[in-house]
Amino acid sequence: MMAMSIPYELNGRSNQKQRTRDALVAAARDLVAQGHTPTVEAAAEAAAISRTTAYRYFPNQRALLGAAHPQTAMTSLLPDDPPDDVGERLDLVVTAYTEMMLATEAQLRTMLRLSLEPDADGADLPLRQGRVIGWLEDALEPLRDRLPQTEIHRLAVAIRSATGIEAMAWLTDVAGLSREDAVELMHWSAHAMLQAATRR
Q1: pLDDT per residue as tens, the chain (200 positions)
Q2: In a 10 Å sphere around its CB, with 0-12 CB exposed, 13-18 middle and 19+ buried, how is residue 126 labelled?
């Protein structure tokens, strides 16, 4: 039977190794927030950790930046007692998501750039994990008695395309909108798509 590979930080002295990994991730996040795209060497220097040690945790820049992206294990962005109205639920999720996006915009733009590189396989990039689509499908749950799952998924994908970092970058960098106006337009787009889907 083939032996499973164990991450370096889990192989002996795990607490100390986890602290070292956390320090590298924190340093990378700080550098990204300052507008840089940190290399493993830069993160190691900022965290006062040797390059050799840093490479044991992150063999390349892509692995480091993937870890530096804010990880969200949440399966829902709705409050504990969400409303039944699908429009209200959608508004809550889009609000929570856009606030999260604005708070981590520098990191998200870095992930977007990486995902567009010609040689990017993208399998481990947070942008390609589909978390937001799941959050949107959760918001659209009341539609299950009116629409098939395929249509709900299609609607969630459409809303995601108009509310993510890709849309934010275009609306602010190309269309010249303020971030406040961009977020308002994202809400408008989400509700327009919901209305179109329910009319059908």
Answers
A1: 445 555 555 565 678 889 999 999 999 888 877 767 788 999 999 999 999 999 999 998 878 877 876 555 567 899 999 999 999 999 999 999 999 899 888 878 877 877 777 665 544 555 555 789 999 999 999 999 999 999 999 999 999 999 999 999 999 999 999 999 999 999 999 999 999 999 87
A2: buried
Chain centroid, CA 88 distance in Å: 23
Going 151 to 153 to 156 to 157, the CA torsion angle's sign is negative
Return the closest-CA partner of residue 104 out of 123, 131, 80, 134. Answer: 131
Domains of the chain: 8-68 (1.10.10), 86-199 (no CATH)
Residue 127 to residue 121: CA distance in whole angstroms: 12
Number of residues assigned to the chain: 200
**Look-up: residue for tokens 């039977």?**
1
